[in-house]
Every structure is written in structure tokens, then in C-alpha cells.
Amino acid sequence: MFRKSFIMLFSISLSMVFCLNVSATNKKQTLSASGTKLPEQCKKMFSMADSLISEAERQPGTHTQVAKLKSKLFATKQQIIKMESELQQKSCDKGLVVLNSLKQKH
Q: Which of 17, 32, 42, 59 could make a disulfide contact with 95, Cβ separation 3.0–4.6 Å?
């Protein structure tokens, strides 16, 4: 069962994880014909974050925080898309570690 404290921890974790490499130089985007091509780690991390947000959304009294989380996640996706592939992989690896530990705690 998720508590409001989980929402706060999740929000803080998202901020920390997804802002790790915001100051990195964005040299180019890796694009495929069907859209942005992301490393598997990033797809997995975003899927896990979406899942955790969906679970949090079902908890009473969390709608304000959930809206903020969704907004942060969207902004983070946009930032990661602009990074080089190697930097995307490193960032998403770190993000997966934090999200996995957060998921295990709650």
C-alpha cells in the first residue's frame, strides 16, 4: 500500500535521478524514422516510472502530487531524448537503480 510519504520520496527520487545529467552537453539526438530511439535501459526506466505513478494515482489524496510527478517525468523524458546515446544509457542505468530500490522499500 502506498502512503503519502512514498509520493514525496518518489517525487524527490525522480528529481534527483532525472536531473543528474541535465547540465550535460547535448550534441545530437539519435532518431529513427518512427521517432526517438532510446536505449533499452531508458525504455525500462520510463515504463517503471509510469507504472509507479499509476499505482500512486490510485491512492486517495495524491492527485496533486501525481500531477507534479507526471509533469517532471515528461520533462525528464524530453531532456534524456536530447542526450547522446552513451549519456542516455548512464542516466537511465542510475535511474533504474534508484527506482528499483524505491520500489523495494515500498
A: 17
Asked whether 69 and 10 are in contact (CB, 8 A), the reply is yes
Cα separation, 24 vs 91, in Å, equals 11
| Residue among 96, 74, 98, 92 nearest 10 (CA) | 98
Q: What is the per-residue pLDDT across 8-62, written as a single tens digit (0 to 9) for each? A: 556 556 555 554 444 443 333 333 323 568 899 999 999 999 998 898 888 888 8
Residue 78: predicted pLDDT? 93
CA 93 to CA 44: how far, in whole Å?
10
What is the pTM for the complete model shown? 0.67
CA neighbor of 80 nearest in space, from 92, 69, 72, 68: 92
Per-residue cell: 101? 530500490
Cβ proximity of 11 and 68 under 8 Å: yes
Return the residue matching grid coordinates 518518489. 10
Decide if 8 contacts 70 (C-beta within 8 A).
no
